[in-house]
Design brief:
With 96 residues, the protein is an all-alpha fold. It is 74% helix and 0% strand. It has four helices and no strands. The longest helix has 30 residues. The chain starts with a helix and ends in a 7-residue tail after the last helix.
């Protein structure tokens, strides 16, 4: 159980992150409406996701960040998660 001040900070971080995800949905829709390709949309969303992660991880402990980054490295070969190239072209050999 988290102390009350940490619980409040975690809740604020979660709310911020979900707001950033909503921004991503709007951006994707706007880009598609403007005729952007799937690749252009994917690249923009990966950049936005990376910025959202940086913002939310700033409020986390180094240990929490380490755990997330280890998981992403094992799964995607990148501590921030899937890259735009991976989303557009698929995983590199040896990673699934």
């Amino acid at each position: 159980m988290l102390p009350m001040d940490e619980k409040g900070e975690a809740q604020r971080t979660r709310i911020l992150y979900h707001g950033l995800l909503e921004d991503m949905h709007r951006t994707a829709a706007d880009m598609r409406d403007a005729g952007a390709t799937d690749e252009e949309v994917a690249r923009e969303l990966v950049d936005m996701r990376s910025r959202a992660k940086a913002i939310t991880r700033a409020g986390m402990t180094p240990e929490e960040v380490r755990i997330l980054e280890e998981r992403n490295t094992a799964k995607y070969g990148n501590p921030l998660g899937a890259t735009a190239d991976r989303i557009v072209t698929g995983p590199p050999p040896g990673l699934s």
